[in-house]
Structures are given as C-alpha cells and as structure tokens.
Design goal:
Blueprint lengths: L3 H8 L11 H4 L2 H12 L6 H26 L2 H26 L7 E5 L1 H4 L9 E7 L5 H16 L4 E7 H10 L1 H8 L2 E5 L1 H16 L3 H18 L18 H15 L5 H5 L5 H25 L11 H7 L10 H34 L2 H11 L2 E2 L6 E4 L2 E4 L4 H4 L3 H12 L2 E2 L1 H9 L6 H4 L2 H11 L5 H10 L2 H5 L1 H6 L13 H16 L8 H7 L5 H10 L10 H16 L3 H12 L3 H8 L5 H11 L2 H16 L8 H19 L4 H18 L5 H9 L3 H6 L2 H17 L4 E7 L4 E9 L4 H11 L4 E8 L4 E9 L5 H19 L5 H11 L11 E5 L7 E8 L4 H11 L2 E11 L2 E10 L10 H14 L15 E3 L5
Length: 944
Amino acid sequence: MTTGLQKRGRATSQEGRGPDLRLAEIVDETRLRADLAAVAGQGEEARPAILQILKDANRDGRKAAEAMLFEDGGGLLCAMRISALQDILVRAVHDLACRLFNYGGRCMGVIAVGGYGRGTLAPGSDIDLLFLLSDTATPGARKATEYLLYLLWDLGLKVGHSSRTISECVALAREDHTIRTALLERRLVTGEASLFKALGARFEAEVVAGTSAEFIKAKLAERDQRHAKSGDTRYLVEPNVKEGKGGLRDLHTLFWIAKDHYRVESRGELVSAGVFSRRECRLFEKAEDFLWAVRCHMHFLTGKAEERLSFDIQPEIAGRLGYNTHPGMKEVERFMKHYFLIAKDVGDLTGIFCAALEEEQAKEAPGLRGLIRSLRSRSRQIPGTLAFSIDNNRITTTSRTVFSDDPVNFIRIFKLAARHRLEYHPDALKLIRRSLRLVNQALRDNREANSLFLDVLTDPSDPELHLRRMNEAGVLGRFIPDFGKIVAMMQFNMYHHYTVDEHLLRAVATFSKLEHGELEGELPLTTSFVGQVKDRVPLYVAILLHDIAKGRQEDHSQAGARIARELCPRLGLDDRETELVAWLVEDHLLMSMTAQQRDLTDRKTIRDFAERVQTLDRLKLLTILTVCDIRAVGPGVWNGWKGQLIRTLYMETEPVLTGGFSQSSRRQRIEAARVDLSHALSGWAEGERAAAIDSHYPNYFLTVPLEDQKRHAAFLRENASKGAELATSVRTDRFRGMTEITVLAPDHPRLLSFIAGGCAAAGANIADAQIFTMTDGRALDIVTVSREFAEDEDELRRAERIARNIRELLGGRQAMPDLLAGRRSRGRDLSSFDVRPRVTVHNHLSEQLTVIEVEGLDRTGLLSDLTGAISDLNLDIRSAHVSTYGEKVVDVFYVTDLLGQKVAGEGRAERIERRLIAVFEEPEGEVSSHTVKPSTVAFGMSAR
C-alpha cells in the first residue's frame, strides 16, 4: 500500500508556482452565485432557500476536499482548499447582502485574520473575520455585516468576528499581542481593497516598526506557557496536534516571529533571509504538510474540531494515512512514531530558530545593559580544548570543521557541557545535525568516545539534560543504533504516557534526583540505598537500556539483555559489570510484577524472588531500577500503594538473602505483634482485650500496622455494643492522598465482589483493599481509594457514598447491575485496544494454593464480575492482587477448593479458564451463589 507520506510527497506544490487546489471540483462559484441570485428576489421568504443552497455547497465542498485528501494526501492542500471554500461562501453571501441592502461595499472590507488569514483552515476550525469599517461606514454596511454573520452561524460555522476602524485596529494591536498576531496574518476576502491597504501601512508603521524585540519576547513566553501546560514534552502518547509541543502552533509561532522580524511573506523567503537552509525549509514544509494532514483527518473523522490525537482515533487515522503493520510494530505504532519524529523536527526547527533570535536580541540590546550583555556573552576558550568555546554561557564550536577534523568531538562536546554546566549554542546544534553522517562505526568503536559517553551518562550534576540534547541532536541514536530504533517509538496502550526514548531519559533523571537526595521525603528507603551502591555506572547503563528492545517481536527484556551484553564491553564495562547490567535489564520487571501480582505473605513467593535476585546488592540495585522505571512511566503512575508493596517485598526478601529468615522468627513476629496490641489496649477490660486479640488470624498481625489494629479494635468494640451486623467507617489521609473505608460484615461468598462493585459504582480508584476473615466468621474489610477532592469535607461525603453503595449491596437493597449501569455508560470507550483475554492456572507458584492469573481489557465492574465468577466455580479466594496498566488489567487470585486444597482434577483448570474468559465476553451475565470463605485479601486496582 502507498503510505500517506509518499502520497503527500507527490501532492505538495512548490511555493511560488501556486498550488493546484482544484477549486472547480470543490464548488462552482459562478453557479453558486447564480443559484443565490435566482432566489434572492423573493424577499425575506427566500432565506430558507438561500440557507439550503449554502448548506449544500458547504457540505459538498467539504466532501470533495476530504476525497482529495485521501487521493493526494496533501494536508496543507486540504487546509488551503477548506479556506478557499470558505472564501467562496463569504464572498457569495457578502455580494448577496450588498444587493439586498443596496450597499456598494466601498466603506467596508471583509478580512480574514488568524489561521484563516494564513489561507489555511481545518474542517472544524473557527473562522476569524474582521469587518474593517471606514470612518464613514453606512447603516447598509452594518446590516450587510449582520446578514453575513447570521447566515454563517446558521450554516453551523463557528465565526469569531470584530467590527473596527483602522485606528481601532492599530490601537488594540499595540496593546494586545494576540490581536497583533491575528492582524499579522491578514488577508482581504472581499470588500474595499483600499481600506485593507491602508490598514497594512499603518500596522507596519505604528505597530510593527521598532517593536520586534518585544513581540519576540511575548511569543516565546506564550510558547513556554503553552508547553508547560501540556507537560513540557512533545512525546506524550496522546498529543495535541495543534497546541502541543512539536505541533502546528510551534510552526505558526516560528513563522509569526519570522514574519514580524524579517518581514517575510512565505516560507521560501526564510531561505533568502538566511534564517533556514534549503534543507531546513523543506523540513518545515514536510512537517507542516504532515501535521495538517493529521489534523484534517481528525476533524473529518470526528465531525468536530478535535485537536487531541487520542487512543480512540489513532488507529483510524493511521489507516486513513495508509500505514501498515510491520513485524514488532502495529500500523498505529508506526504512524505515531512518524508523528513523533515530525514533532522532533518541529522542535529542532523552532528551537534553533528561537534560540538564534534570543542571541541576536541579546547582542543588539542598547546602552549599558547591552554592554554588560556583550561582555558576558564574549566568547572565551574552554581550558584543555581548541575545538570549543563558551559564548553567553553556551558551548559552541570554534570552526565549521570541528567534527570532520575529529569525530570524537561529537561526544566530547556533551562531556564538556556537562563538566562546565553549559547549555548548547544553536549554531553548535545546527552544525551537529548537519554533520551526523560522520557518526559511523569507527566512532562507535573508539575507546575515548565510549569513555566520554559514560561520563555524560553518569554526570553527577544533570545527566538527563545532556542525554536529552544528545538525543535531540540525533547523536545518541547514531552512536547507539539500538537506541535509535526506539527514538519516537510509542506503545499503543494507555499505561505508558511517553515514547520509549522519553521514558528512558526520565528514568535516568529519576536516578539522578535520588543521588541528589531530592526524593528522600517520598522515597526514604530507596534513597538510603543510593549511597550504598557500589555499581553506580552499571546501574546508570541498565536504566538507560532497560527498554531498549521495545518494538521487537521477541520479549523485550530478553532481547535487551542480549543488546546489553554486546554494548557494555564497547562502553568499557568489564565482564562482571556487563553481566550485572544484562541481569538488571532482563529482570527489570521482576520486582514490580512480584510486588503487584503475587501474595507477599506466601513464603514461596519470597523464596522464589530471592532465588532470582541472589544477593543483597542486586536486590538494592533492582529496587532502585524498579522505582525509576515506574516513576518514569507517567504522572500519577507511581503512588504510595506501589511504594508500600515494593518496600514490603524488599523487607521480606532482605532477611532471606542475609540468612536472617526462619519460620521461628515469623512465629516470634506474630507473638510480638499480639503482645504489642495487648499493651496498646491496656485500658480495656481483660476480657475485651483478649477478645480483640483472639478475633484475628496470624496474617492480620503481620499485615496491619499497630495504629490501624488499635483503630480496628475500637471499631469492632463499638459495633459489638450496638449489636450491628453490618457497619462502615471512613477517614481521609491527606498526606498519602488516600481515603480509607472500613467495613464490618458477615462473611459472604460475594464479599470481594460487592466491595469492588460499590467502589466502581462511585468511580473510585482503589489503591489498596484488605479483607480479613476473623475467627468468629465475620469479615473486616479495609478499602483505600485514591483521593478525588482537595477538601476533607467533600472527600468524606464521597467516601460515605461509596460506603453506602457497599452497604446496600450487602444488605440486598440494591442489585449490582442496576448500581453499575450508569457508571458503565460513562466509562471510557476502550474498543480501540485489542487486548485478548488470557487466563492461566498455576499450581507451582504456591505450596498450598492455586494461583489464577487473568489478563484482559479493563471495564467498569470487571473485578466484581471476575470474583463473582470465581464464586460460581466453587473456589475460595484466599488473596487477590489486582493491577491496572492503562486499558489492560492483570488480576491474580490465590484460591483453594471448598475443602481448602489446591485445585486438582482432570479438566478443572480448563473449566476455570473458559468461565473467566467468558466474563470478558459476557460482562453482565447472571451468576449464581455458592458458599465461599474469603481469607486475607490485599490488592491494588483502578475503578472497576
């Protein structure tokens, strides 16, 4: 299949010759005017007929433009065609209004401004019109304006408009940079040309002249604010094509500044002005055309001004643009990788251009201030090198042959910048990009270059900054070709927020912050390891490489370990360090998967994990890598619950690796906990104190902190005095950002199902839930959900609503399907994701329990349905561990049969697998009731 990129390459016209918009195929302007004139003589009664003619022309024109977009792939052409269609409609209505109101049109000009003024419009874009009035505008002109606006609104178009004189335009543009920017891109659509020309003359003389420095500063500040609002990265996996970093607005900002500062009217003039080389101008055109194609397809597909390239529409846009699946990458992932490479090109262009302007402005600053800047920016040599110097606190080259003279300078420049804490001069970055062909195998094999690279990677100050600049300049991907394969690569799922290369750089940044002690308040245990780490260099290498094999057909952890074994010796690591890096890369998911998907109170879990880790030093290194990995996935992915699980796994594993673990110590810990609770309840009557302690099985004392045990004891005693069979209490924890709901209820086969359903019905994201069966047969449930409201009063009301849901379900006053019906209808559409359900039954992961692993597509009420189905299978849930990775769930249940034994028997495992897979296919199926006795349950999940 021909790709959209290839088609766009054929369709794009050379600037200056004028693009072939094929307007005659979009709308026949002559016929449109004739049709309008034919009905206009019928007076006010003609309005419906006029409106219908215009609607038909608009609809047919847009359909034709969409068909041409599919045919030639020209994104910029499509935007120009939509704009030209709009021009025809505006001119036709304006001429009609002139006749209806006996207005000659000489005292008003209808001017397109903003994006419309550029001559480009997306199908759902606003139309910005300026009605430029002379000082002697007649009532007919104002009536014509109203008539035109109302007809455009009735067409369903979003019209932004203003009616001003030339003096008003000039005055407002001087005060407001937004208005100035809109007028900068002005175009006469119809009306009085002399007014348009007069506005241009006064705008240039009274607004633009002598104020470019102020305008540049304002637009750069506006750009920075826009980037900060979107997360300050162009590698978000659901990017905003218009406003996001690397999107169309960045190109527009570049051209606004160029147009204002250099007085250019076209991209081609940027080459003549010395702003861009011809190659860079072609890159500008290619990026603009691609982004316009994506944006136009998005608007056509959704029928609205959709600017966010969401997961829901990415596959369809990829299909519209002609992308195909390749081994290891879906068509949507290939499309998005192309998108991010284009966004990177936009970043390169705007970054170099804007930085160069900043340099120019700094050098041209007048007076004493300018002299001080000049002295500060005076170039000075960097000690120990003749190839580089410092200019305005930025590293730059001393000649244009620096990299051809010695290719090691491709790496040395980043090492020097890191050592001297310098940023990069735009001229140096431009020279690097233009010389990348010199980064070859000889450089990759150069011992000094590899040593310098390790110095950059392990820089004690800010390794992420310099690795990021190296990546943006294209050096990192060429110096380590396997890294180049994952540059701009996205994974089509809702869990990973960034591209793979962005994720790796953020993971490196997290380790650097740990070294600086910046995360000690959040991560005290992990921070304490950093000073004890002897293998700092291998750990940095492992963090950089842990996902380097993403996008391949084979398992990325195993493939990554193989890459590490090949690369590490080249970088200068010895055999022991190489094997350590390879192990960390291969097992980088081991700790997070064990912590989130296994029962940490099961001793076999700990023994199996310890056997894989082998030494305490490797345990600490793996803990650091795991924390850096999870925190770099995206905002909100790391939370206190995951931190608690990882700390628990570490604390349980450490004594096994150091020889301090034995069954007797476990019994001693249980007895010590019972004694501690007894002392904590010393003010109680002896019988009450004994009853409180004897109410719980041993695992309760190993799992629940003493302060929580005291609170639970008071809760149980209070409700015992009331004779309450079912009770709840709620409390907030502002520090952890959590809210806790405690439930006391008779043991019930659907207890876990009802709890999960009650939370899902309220849209609560469960971070932790523990269900303990007590010795008297009752159950004590503790559910921790993510906080939604800032104020405790609001959050407590929400918690009470969740508790009420649970009570109504347990009390039989509410049916689960009815409670979840509204929430299901409001859930996010995940149909774009292909997550095939998978159920596996294991009898080797625990000595006493059967482990059921379930993977599949998430939805509201899923956990409730799964646990209900497990009840149907006559299985006793002993513990459950539920993790959500975006649209995908991984639920692990530790179960026995009703006799307390592992699940056995011919065909039993297959029946379990079939029944649970059916839950994904029949989300609201009827389930019957069987006696189940849930024991200890601890899990973390999202709203189900």
